[in-house]
Task: structure prediction
Amino acid sequence: MATDQEDWIEPFLAKLGIRGIGHAVRDALRNVFVGSRTYRRGQVVADQADETEPLHLVLKGWAARYQTLEDGSRQITDFILPGELCDLSRLGRGATDSAVALTSLKAALLNRSAMRSAIGQHPRLSDSLMQLAFNEEAILRAWVVCLGRRNKREHTAHLLCELYERLRRTDLASRHEFVMPLTQEELADALGMTAVHTNRVLKSLREDGLISTDRHHVRLLQPKQLKKVGEFDETYLFT
Amino acid sequence: MATDQEDWIEPFLAKLGIRGIGHAVRDALRNVFVGSRTYRRGQVVADQADETEPLHLVLKGWAARYQTLEDGSRQITDFILPGELCDLSRLGRGATDSAVALTSLKAALLNRSAMRSAIGQHPRLSDSLMQLAFNEEAILRAWVVCLGRRNKREHTAHLLCELYERLRRTDLASRHEFVMPLTQEELADALGMTAVHTNRVLKSLREDGLISTDRHHVRLLQPKQLKKVGEFDETYLFT
DNA sequence: CGGAAGATTGAGAGTTCTCAATGCCTGTGG
DNA sequence: CCACAGGCATTGAGAACTCTCAATCTTCCG
Result:
């Protein structure tokens, strides 16, 4: 278990932006850790209805927050990448949407009430978590802008840039390449479009030499051009 | 000035969900107050580039957070109603989008560093502000779902329900009526559509007897039907 | 009263969706 | 090792929704 803890605490502290004299916070975090859990692709990770569930910090794999509509269609509202929390908002009241594992997933479990009391005792932790919430919010706003005012090609380009940059920031991507373990349908659910059109858009980006896709391996062949197409400005990502 | 303070502190505490023994927090908030300011319609309230600006708590009028694209189009990412903070995310680092006054606006100014230290000293305040951030996030997720998976008619219906419910929660609306001081173009910028189509959608909702609009006065004639059209479930609003 | 902003309507164009068919890859059982 | 099944990707064609451009009407404000 001790190794498990070391596996996640340091990266998590880094993500929180807590460096140097973070001993007290580190000790506090050790106490919120209550184990880890694995999920299979398709499994619901954080069922918001369940008040007793711990928080999930993704160690490995991808997840997504989503909402399902009455007609059965689904909108993904955020991807959760390794190093990110599945359910930060469940520190508060009234969280409504669920998270699903998009791959096989490993998550550290953080006791919620322990986390709450750690927050109360460590303003620095509290600040950092609030910053995390702001980061999520900034990404959401970017999604709103993409959905509202860009066409699907631009939006797709933007999302690919975003995913690359988010992964790069945790050393999960480099050289403009990354593994994107999503089906086109899942991608479509995030982009607010159909799988068919997603396919066509990807094809068009490929044909223009902007990206290449091989299975789940994505390469940004002309990153500058792609960013230009998606009007992507990474300023909104802080982590 | 003392009256000014009383004008906003109690409603703000209510919004924060801090009741009863909130004396310490109340005193702390008194100290962050550094005056109030008025804006004209169209004025930028919170220019995110400016690090010295205080936080704005809207006392009267509407504002909107937005982003402008290279082609000049604009996407509103949130409406800011009386009692809400314009720029909560500027408590953290890296906030990127601005806010504009949609009407003449009166805002209480809260000193940012004073607020930060108040947060450090009052876990309860910290919790409440984090809850506020989660509330914003929930609204944003609902917007993403609307933009991604609903047609414009459904989205419009949803937004009208949302605005009514948000206003009702601060006693600014009742009996399924409210004042919506938006031009159709501003509404369009929030809904991610054109002003022309916004006009047609409103007309269709009117013709179906779901709403009536007279100048800036909106009435939900058949609230249940309208909620059904927009698949609106108020659970995600907590405030 | 005049001008400007905002609302409304029409018509044609474009983007994206829907329905449907076909091809491809991966894992499983023989 | 090969055949098969099922999920996933790809392509085509027509329909639907929303946009663009343009004109007209109405309301607001000095």
